[in-house]
Amino acid sequence: MNPIALYTNLVKKMRLNNVEIKAPVKLHRDKQVQQTATTQHTTTTQTTTVAVTNNTTSEHYHVAYPHNYQFILDEPDKCLKQNPFLVLMVPVAPQQLEARKAIRSTWGTETNVQGKSVMTLFVVGLPGGADSNKTQQLLNEESREHGDLLQSNFIDTYINLTIKTMVIMDWLTTRCPQASYGMKIDSDMFLNLENLMTLLLDPKTPKQNYITGMVMWNRPVVRSKNSKWYVPEDLYPEPNYPTYLLGMGYVFSNDLPPKLVEVSKDIKPFNIEDAYVGACIKRLGLEPSSPPDPSQFKAYLGKYEREVCLRVITTILGSPKQLIDIWKDVKRSV
């Protein structure tokens, strides 16, 4: 699906969820195109101007550019109040309340690690389906209770993970520039914040232009239309992705989000969000850094071993209950 078709599909889904888009943006060169979006979840009307400059090497793309979306649920002053050293941004589906509960009772409770302030926020899009209104009401209540939900007005689907990731980068840019580091971490992850903080406080860890996690090199682009990870050539023509970090969890210096947001205007969006971030990093002339101990960013845990969880920074788990059970065991006194 090309960027215009992707946007058209997004508009149709938003209308099904009571979000009206007037005068949808089309890609043009040498023009300024205006879009007016009226969102019935809020009382505000947002007008977004997408400036497309005369550039012989690139066009500006609107689908993944986060300034074209607005926050319905927001915590704009949270960083001013807490002044975090590290912000954990957790993309999660609107319906995944149990995952959020598990994180709030495990690694999301850790707000001070080795003397540094840590803040955890959950990022969702608009719920879809027949129960979308009920789900939205529950999200509103959850936001009032916990004050840790961010919601933007794109439809929350797998294909829109790239939008969600760039919205995360935009929030860090506009609401939390004072943080030293950010982390995008999935909701099904175990996170050992002690080990992560040890890495970040190491004098050898860069404070700028830094991003690390599980590094993927020379990964082939999937062309099979039956695959979940299918990307057509018109969206990404190269046979291999640039070096990128597996989206399960990567940490970065907080000077990177505004740079990624800016360069995203010139990168044609595609639906493999971690590879898309890798393309943005490449456009910046940067390379992801391998962690000092690559085994600390572990894909799947397999059989639980306490010693493994004491050594890692992240690993993928199977369920919210598994996170709670492992957390209790890892934190017990020996």
Automatic annotation (TrEMBL):
Which InterPro entries does the UniProt record give?
Answer: B3GT2_N (IPR045821), Glyco_trans_31 (IPR002659)
User: What Enzyme Commission number does this protein have?
Assistant: 2.4.1.-
- Identify which top EC class this enzyme belongs to: transferase
Cellular-component GO terms for this entry: Golgi membrane
Superkingdom, according to UniProt? Eukaryota
Which BP terms in the Gene Ontology apply to this protein?
A: lipid metabolic process; protein O-linked glycosylation
Q: Which keywords does this chain's UniProt record carry?
A: Glycoprotein, Glycosyltransferase, Golgi apparatus, Lipid metabolism, Membrane, Signal-anchor, Transferase, Transmembrane, Transmembrane helix
Chief subcellular location equals Golgi
Q: Name one Pfam family in it.
A: B3GALT2_N
Pathway in which this enzyme or protein is active = Protein modification; protein glycosylation
Every Beta-1,3-galactosyltransferase 2 N-terminal domain range: 24-87
For this chain, one GO molecular function annotation is:
N-acetyl-beta-D-glucosaminide beta-(1,3)-galactosyltransferase activity
* Membrane-topology annotation of the record: Single-pass type II membrane protein
The record's subcellular location field reads: Golgi apparatus membrane
> What family does the database annotate?
Belongs to the glycosyltransferase 31 family.
Output this protein's name. Answer: Hexosyltransferase
